[in-house]
Design goal:
The complex is a heterodimer of chains A (about 250) and B (about 280). With about 250 residues, chain A is α/β, with parallel strands linked by helices. Helix content of chain A is about 40%, strand content about 25%. In chain A, a hairpin with a 2-residue loop joins strand 8 and strand 9. The longest helix of chain A is centred in the last third of the chain and has 17 residues. In chain A, about 40% of the residues are buried. Chain B has one domain. Classes of the chains: A alpha/beta (about 250), B mainly alpha (about 280).
Chain lengths: ~250, ~280
């Protein structure tokens, strides 16, 4: 059963200024001695997450709200297994896909079909899966003969369609999203919404960060209010959204 | 199914042997995972080369052409300088230069493997070694382009192929094993200390001159002591591939040195990467 468990997860970002990134300085510092090392070591540490405890079980739809800089992106990255907490532990058990930047891996010089493969690989598809699903993806994009043209000849909307079609082809156990994906013209948008809905419904765990209360209300069964890297409130959507809006 | 259970580097002060083992195990898990998903590196490495072909008929062969021109120029220049017959010198410099181009590009691009892939690393969870494999694979493909020059040169100087040339294959595998750990180690270090990239470039430039590539060891043997050659790891790495191609078997010392370097290098790198690999995303 897919699950996510964070125990006292803390994420500290070391901020290396140009001088700390230099090897020369590091060597110099170690030669000069420990005393000066501490003074000279002017690293600023930014705490992205502060002692976060979080259990997400199968079937939960978790909404994430909070002001800018609250640590939403950091938390999403921890949940996707990209940042390993600098203290505490994170257990992410399940096949996890994040739909944050769906254009990642896409090459404007390559054709639509080549890009289906590139984006498919990023989505974690195997060679066999890509071969089996490419036709289905191509069909969904509705791009027809354009698929054999380099992507740079596409309009922005068409490029997004392609990225969207590949990114929503597989159904992960854990789905991570930052805002709802909306693409294309009115007609495509309807089709796209349906398809994204199917991916969301098929997922075991959904984590959705959003600034839109309606979106959270509509999709989530539980909401976390993040502020200054800490969980300020955790509960049913109505309660947390109410408190958040009336703070 | 992925379970991550990692404690903090902050109160990590492990030095005991058991902990080194556990780091090495973490490192090995990462490498194994990346090798298992070799498809990702294969597709993107191939894509990197394909990009060179877009809007260019000659594509990656431009690199081959430039290596070819370099080989011809250098063999005439240094052949005359060292008074070595062209028939002997041309194949030597062709194989050496092509191998060196491969080795030094992997090492230089290895330095920026993680930095260049930072967009991907911060968005998608892939084993980090995948990005190093991508660099190696794309350069193997380019090497495949360049190596075409060798049979042409052999034909030009009428050097008949010998069965010893087959030894170049295990030699190349050992070379790849070595480049694997070197690139991974440098990718990790350079993500943290960005100016190591420059230092490495510098070092590779010097290595080019101290390694017998544009000069033959025996043509200058009175002036070059044995130790000068044998203490240079690049000498062994190049020799185990170049000598078979030229029809000579490498010495036992060449094989031994290259293999030892691979084993020791990987042990050190696995421990180092197991310890610091998890921090790479923070450094980008």
């Amino acid at each position: 059963m897919p699950r996510i468990s964070l125990k006292n997860a803390t994420v500290d970002f070391p901020v290396y200024d140009a001088s700390a990134r230099s090897l020369k300085k590091a060597v110099f510092r170690s030669v000069v001695g420990a005393n000066i090392a501490q003074r000279a070591d002017g690293h600023v540490v930014i705490r992205g997450l502060d002692n976060v405890n979080l259990e997400i079980a199968h079937g939960e739809r978790l909404g994430l709200i909070g002001p800018n800089g609250a640590g939403k992106t950091t938390l999403l990255r921890v949940l996707s297994g990209i940042y390993v907490p600098s203290r505490g532990e994170a257990i992410i058990d399940g096949k996890c896909v994040s739909l944050i930047n769906i254009s990642l891996g896409i090459d404007p010089e390559a054709t639509g079909r080549e890009n289906i493969r590139l984006r498919g690989v990023i989505m974690g598809m195997s060679a066999r899966e890509i071969a089996a699903r490419a036709e289905h993806i191509a069909e969904f994009t509705g791009l027809g003969e354009f698929l054999d043209m380099p992507l740079r000849t596409y309009s922005t909307g068409m490029q997004l369609r392609l990225a969207f079609a590949v990114s929503t082809e597989i159904h992960p156990e854990i789905l991570i999203m930052d805002e709802w994906l909306a693409t294309g013209d009115a007609e495509f948008q309807h089709k796209a919404n349906e398809r994204l809905r199917a991916v969301v419904d098929a997922s075991s765990i959904l984590v959705l960060a959003s600034h839109s209360p309606e979106l959270i209300q509509e999709n989530c069964s539980r909401v976390i209010w993040l502020e200054k890297g800490q969980i300020r409130m955790d509960g049913p959507p109505a309660d947390v959204l109410h408190a958040y809006q009336n703070q | 199914m992925n379970v991550m259970n990692l404690d903090s580097p902050v109160h990590d002060r492990k030095t005991a042997r058991g902990d080194l083992l556990s780091y090495a195990r973490d490192g090995a898990t990462e490498i194994a995972g990346a090798l298992e998903n070799y498809y990702v590196a294969a597709v993107f490495g191939w894509q990197d080369v394909a990009q060179r072909y877009r809007r260019s008929r000659v594509g990656a062969f431009w690199l081959t052409i430039s290596v070819g021109v370099m080989i011809v120029t250098l063999s005439f220049l240094f052949g005359a300088l060292f008074r070595v017959p062209l028939q002997e010198f041309l194949p030597f410099i062709a194989t050496g230069l092509i191998l060196w181009t491969f080795i030094s590009t992997v090492i230089n691009e290895g330095c920026t493997a993680f930095i260049d892939a930072s967009g991907m690393i911060l968005q998608v969870r892939l084993k980090l070694f995948t990005h190093v494999l991508r660099v190696i694979w794309r350069n193997v493909i380019i090497f495949g382009h360049n190596i075409i020059v060798v049979p042409l040169v052999m034909l030009a100087v009428q050097l008949p192929p010998s069965p010893v040339a087959l030894l170049a294959l295990p030699g190349f595998v050992i070379l790849l094993l070595n480049l694997g750990w070197i690139a991974l180690l440098l990718a990790t270090l350079c993500a943290r200390y960005r100016d190591i990239t420059q230092a490495v470039q510098n070092l590779m430039q010097i290595a080019f001159f101290v390694t017998p590539i544009i000069w033959m060891p025996h043509s200058v043997s009175e002036r070059v002591p044995e130790a000068f050659l044998n203490l240079n790891p690049f000498y062994h790495l190049i020799t185990i591939v170049r000598e078979p191609l030229l029809g000579h078997a490498p010495s036992a010392l060449n094989w031994f040195a290259a293999l030892t370097l691979a084993v020791v290098g990987w042990i050190v790198t696995l421990i180092f990467f197991g310890r610091f690999g998890k921090r790479v995303a923070y450094w980008l």
